[in-house]
From TrEMBL:
It is found in: Membrane. It is a multi-pass membrane protein. GO terms for cellular component: membrane. Residues 125-280 form the 3-oxo-5-alpha-steroid 4-dehydrogenase C-terminal domain. The keyword NADP does not apply. Keywords: Membrane, Transmembrane, Transmembrane helix. The chain crosses the membrane at residues 20-37, 57-75, 95-114, 126-144, 164-183, 204-221, 227-251. GO terms for molecular function: 3-oxo-5-alpha-steroid 4-dehydrogenase activity. This is 3-oxo-5-alpha-steroid 4-dehydrogenase C-terminal domain-containing protein. Pfam families: Steroid_dh. It comes from the Eukaryota. Its main location: membrane.
Length: 280
């Protein structure tokens, strides 16, 4: 869709489609940007200039955007007052079953935006530009996912027991397993940081245990599995676009972190891959 046809959008459905296509395009742009500029936060940058802010505060702010926009986008009966007056808003038609996905989304982001950063022993300062990019990303992602569940999901939910239910069960199980694995490996990194604060070495140490035996970034691998489960269970195109974005964001970041571990620690286990066990 070109700029001219974008200006001619008359319904929220068309706007949604434009935003979804734009969001898909973002994944390619993110991949290109990361390959050129790296993934400059945490271990991947030493910048600590005037544009940095508290890593913990930045993290909480940028991640809280997601559940807030998602809840608004899902529960609001229509978003008319946010849209230009010529645009006809989508009508809410959410089924009870879609609430399962609302619960999964909220569960993930209560951890990601509140529990996780507050439990972390420390977090490096972050460039404000990274935080703003994450805010934009989370806003569009949460709008698309919340809105799709609120307006398009019901057609699936009215089907009788069929292959879709198998996908629902498998996908939900994958989401739960992925989230558990993500939290578990985040916890291992937190323990490593606590060890450091007791005087056992530098800011970063080599992580061991569980899937760290196979990859440098198992928390990213589990995050990917988690959202692939969400997309599989919901069948949502917005959720699949989110999965593609995560892949384009976290696969290069995992590669940079993996390369950084190898360059930083002479004894770093050679058999580990970056993010996907035995593959990459
Ligand atoms: N869905 C998405 O698109 C998306 C995007 C990004 C992140 N996430 C999720 O958010 C979580 C955090 O991501 P992240 O990129 O910040 O991960 P990360 O770079 O691995 O860092 C995670 C935390 O662990 C600390 N840490 C990392 N390596 C360490 C080591 N070797 N020794 C001691 N401490 C170490 C970091 O400290 P410093 O702050 O001091 O570096 C940071 O506080 C992950 O679970 C990830 O899956 C999701």
């Amino acid at each position: 869709m070109n700029v001219q046809s974008y200006l001619e959008v008359t319904t929220e459905q068309e706007l949604f489609d434009v935003a979804l296509r734009g969001f898909l395009l973002t994944s390619v742009l993110v991949l290109g940007g990361l390959l050129v500029f790296g993934s400059p936060y945490g271990s991947q940058t030493n910048y600590n200039g005037i544009f940095t802010i508290s890593g913990r505060a930045a993290w909480i702010f940028m991640e809280l955007v997601s559940p807030v926009v998602f809840i608004y986008s899902y529960f609001s009966s229509n978003l008319a007052f946010l849209l230009p007056s010529k645009i006809q808003p989508l009508e809410r038609s959410a089924s009870t079953r879609s609430l399962v996905f609302v619960a999964l989304w909220i569960a993930h982001y209560v951890n990601r935006a509140i529990i996780y950063p507050l439990r972390q022993p420390s977090r490096k300062n972050m460039h404000i530009g990274i935080m703003l990019c994450a805010v934009v990303f989370n806003t569009v992602n949460a709008y698309l996912n919340g809105r799709w569940l609120a307006t398009a999901f019901s057609s699936h939910a009215t089907e009788p027991f069929n292959s879709w239910d198998v996908r629902f069960v498998l996908g939900t199980a994958l989401f739960v397993a992925g989230m558990a694995g993500n939290i578990h490996h985040d916890n291992l990194l937190m323990r490593l940081r606590s060890k450091k604060s007791k005087g056992n070495g530098s800011r970063y140490l080599i992580p061991y245990g569980s899937l760290f035996s196979f990859v440098s970034c198992p928390h990213f691998f589990c995050e990917l599995a988690e959202w692939a489960g969400f997309a599989l269970a919901s069948g949502s195109p917005a959720a699949w676009a989110f999965v593609l974005n995560i892949l384009c964001n976290l696969a290069p970041r995992a590669y940079f972190i993996h390369r950084w571990y190898i360059g930083t620690f002479a004894v770093y286990p050679k058999s580990r891959k970056a993010i996907i066990p035995f593959v990459f």
